[in-house]
Amino acid sequence: MNLVVEAESFRNLGGWVIDQQFMDQMGSPFLLAHGLGKPVADATTTVRFPAPGTDRVWVRTRDWVGEWKQPGTPPAQRAEGSPGAFQLLINGQPLATAFGTEGAAWHWQDGGTVEITNPEVALALHDLTGFEGCCDAIGFSQDLNAEPVRQLAPVEDGGAVDFVVVGGGIAGVCAAVAAAREGLRVALVQDRPVLGGNNSSEVRVWLGGETRFAPYANIGNLVAELEPTRHAHDGPGNTGDLYEDDKRIALCRAEKNLTLFLGWRMNAVEMAGQTIRGVIMQEITTGRRLLITGRWFADCTGDGELGYRAGAEFDLTAQQHMGMTNMWNVRDTGRPTIFPRCPWALRLDDQPFPGRGDFCGQFAKPGLSSLGGWFWESGFDRDPIADAERTRDWNFRAMYGAWDALKNADHAYATYELNFAAYIASKRESQRLLGDVVLTREAVLAGQSFPDACFPCTWTVDLHYPEPAFQNGFEGEEFISVSKHDHYDKPFWAPYRCLYSRNIANLFMAGRDISVTHEALGAVRVMRTTGMMGEVIGLAVALCRQHNSMPRDIYARHLDAFRQQLQRGVKPHSP
Hints:
Elements: E1 2-6, E2 17-19, E3 30-34, E4 43-48, E5 53-61, E6 86-90, E7 93-94, E8 107-116, E9 120-127, E10 131-141, E11 155-160, E12 163-166, H1 170-181, E13 186-190, H2 221-226, H3 245-253, E14 258-262, E15 264-272, E16 275-283, E17 289-293, E18 296-299, H4 305-310, E19 314-315, E20 324-325, E21 328-332, E22 377-378, H5 388-409, E23 416-421, E24 426-427, E25 432-433, H6 441-446, E26 453-457, E27 461-466, E28 481-486, E29 492-495, E30 507-509, H7 518-524, H8 527-547, H9 551-557, H10 559-568
Parallel strand pairs: 11-17, 12-13, 12-18, 13-14, 18-30
Antiparallel strand pairs: 1-10, 2-3, 3-10, 4-9, 5-8, 5-10, 6-7, 6-9, 15-16, 16-17, 19-25, 20-22, 20-24, 21-23, 26-29, 27-28
Helix pairs in contact: 1-8, 8-10
């Protein structure tokens, strides 16, 4: 007998959160005890066993700081202890094993045996620390020597649409809504419970870039519909409600031609030669799998995940690329607060960092304004996809180490506590899918003119690098960045030929995975700009349907009609 309970299927998550950013090959997210140092409430569920008997219990988990316990780890980076410890309660009784305390890699940790006498069994994940305990699944086996076997659900027919958009950030939402308003049947697949990507309550990065410039002054109208009404960049005022997640969801659900798959992860692609036939997606909380077929597809994942799985040509800057940030902030409680020592975090008692004393580097002020901002960034030399979970964990170690040093070494901020930390990282750069034009920094700075100019760029060529002032002891593993800007006459009009794949015939892309070089990405990656890319491909796919053609044909055969579409812009919502 083999019973596997996926952690994300717990009926009551308590204080645990579903982290789907680093789903494994089984397509499984995991639960994270993200309590900022305060144990979170239990996650609970009830399961039915097929037969009574003696079962060995397994929990798929990891010691998330285990990598940094290895011999040879530099002193400032070394971890001691296991912050992510938690217990499994069976019918209210905790097992003797503390989980999340061994093994740097995901694995089945043995929890010993239990006697199952009644078919209905209550399970609970009981967090012991509030410091990122992680649980992927719980397994029971009456073969006491065998680890549990997990199985994928069968693939069901999810139907056919005209246009499948994968990725529900600003770019993806704009692409899906624009196409739906043109009359196409659209599926928007988003693996998180909210829309907006980096500009959501989960991540909390503000919109950058400018919109609506002549000659295509209506490009940006849809971005404006998504725009939050209030703004805050840093600190405790940057609250989740500012991002108006519900407004984006309501906007998509109001479109009669658009089907929103919220909480579904695309994890496989079906091909017909060099054309995508369909995508297989898996529901986060149930494991159910659907195949959605379509005529045209858009990769708005940021990581170029759809294109990569389809075999699209791509580029990736392996080292000295821009990193990932997990925004965080603190708040004044008005009463004395304590924070535990964190021997498993980065050891910053004797290190400078922004917000500590006069060590501000490029930043304007010491103190709170330098804690948790965009420049708490790492992963510059790490694979932005394969090492993404590690980079996120490094950001956590930097945050906890800094707050530990401020509270316990400096005895500062006596009445403050950690208020918010994004457990979903905000990425800047990873895989870039290659189109018929690969936009370069030189073209942007020179203001090169393209016949298929279609969306304006106004952000500087803004690239991030490790900040030298904070490298000591963390060379190659820096966690503070500096931005360097090259200016140009704005707007720069980027070409349409950056927005479709050069070798996958029916694949568009919009977002930070479009066809640009590492350097040019600095000018196009901000979200108002990526939203306009989405608007443009939503208009282009409508022309593809009208002329029974593919993305490349818009430039080759229908450029005048495309320009007319751009002048008109996205249609307003029609009930």
